[in-house]
Amino acid sequence: MAAPKLEPMTLTIRGQVRGGRLLVDEPIDLPDGCEVALAMVEDGDDLDDEDRARLHDAIRAGQAEMDRGEGIPAREVVALLRAKHR
Question: Which of 33, 32, 40, 34 is nearest to 14 (CA)?
């Protein structure tokens, strides 16, 4: 019987780089020598003030449509997309 395939564990740990080394904010209980993958978290986004204003306007308009009952239920949208891509 083959051994079951183990899925990688996902654990989010926050930290900062100081002097070229990663310092985690809290103690972590991982064995010495354990390999970890790091991903940098970027602050903010690339939107300028005009783009951000347009985004917020679009969000407000979408919410107003939903409030008026003009939205399409997600189940219907998914069904339409599946039918379109068959």
Answer: 40
